[in-house]
Amino acid sequence: MYQDIIEKNKTLAVIGLGYVGLPIALEFAKKIKVIGFDINAQRVEMMRNAIDPSQELDKEAFENCDIEFTNDLDVLRKANFFIVAVPTPVDEHNVPDLIPVQRASETIGKVLKKGDYVVYESTVYPGCTEEDCVPIIEKLSGLKMNVDFKIGYSPERINPGDKEHTITSIVKVVSGCCSESLEVIAKVYELVVKAGVHRASSIKVAEAAKIIENTQRDLNIALMNELSIIFDKMNINTYEVLEAAGTKWNFLRFQPGLVGGHCIGVDPYYLTYKSKELGYDSQVILAGRVINDGMAGYVAKKVLQHIIHNNGNVKESKVLVMGATFKENVSDIRNSKVADVVKELSSFSLQVDVSDPFADSEELKHEYGFELVPEIGKDYDAVIVTVPHMPYRELSNDYFSSITKPGAMVADLKGIYRGKIEDRTYWSL
Fold it and tell me: Where do the structural domains in the chain lie, given as residue ranges?
């Protein structure tokens, strides 16, 4: 398989061309023949014109790539090595939503041939690849794993907006259903991953490794958020505390904030779901989730309290929320907790304006029911800077004074204006 791939006698296909799939497909396409498959015809057409629908990659990323973009199953049949990179979200009850990965498995089952390889990159709980996905492929293809085709798992490590830690520069965890498949999969990924690969002993180990990467971050941020709540009651600035504690060599430099996005705020629920299925109710992991999911309400409450104390007339008060994406300097709004802040504030009849230099207004309207304001006003009772976008870092005390009423609050969630706001009430996590 490997020799045929590098000699372009066989083709690699990536199924799902979003934030994860497209960068992977283009990197491979610099070395080997690739089919980029996505069910969204509009997105496929954009990529054929060298446009990244996710706005992460520029036109140059598509140059010198041997890739065919398609949503046609007949084209996909030409592939022999399939990589699945579809989303794995949770539903409104925080239960894993496996529909995208199940449908991708169905797609593969319709086109799979003897000798083919299938590697999943989508984040799942340990056991999902072999217990949930493989049976779908076997049923639709009539083929058997290890006898007719090989399975592997290599968790994605794409970080939207990060131009330093890219697919080529991060060690890639790989696994296979047998020693032969492990070596083939490892060698295929080594074609593009300059940092090298780590061979996990089993698919379950690789699945578990991905889950705990983000669960660990979630818990550490939850600790920072809980500390910020405690320190606020003591009138201590959390970021000053973290600076002081950070002088110790082994202190972990996490910060408080809203925890959204498609990884940290989602992945832990996959692990706790599987844990509960096996008869163990998670305590520490879910405690962290409760704290982080509650931070939007906490922020909204702090702002509301200030407005009541300072103005008194909530229904005539205006709040500006600066930043709608889930993290800084990206256009990605998936699972943005800023939307929860807006919802909480609006529930108290406050007028809420939202601005963001990167987010798409129509996308926000479709996903969360609110739009970006065409122009920032001049008489806000509070401003909440939720995301430290680069353009925001240049703003001054005079700017915030110019858009707010006297006595207004500037709620700076990430502490980027600490020591700079003099003429308005300053608060941060």
Answer: 2-203, 227-427
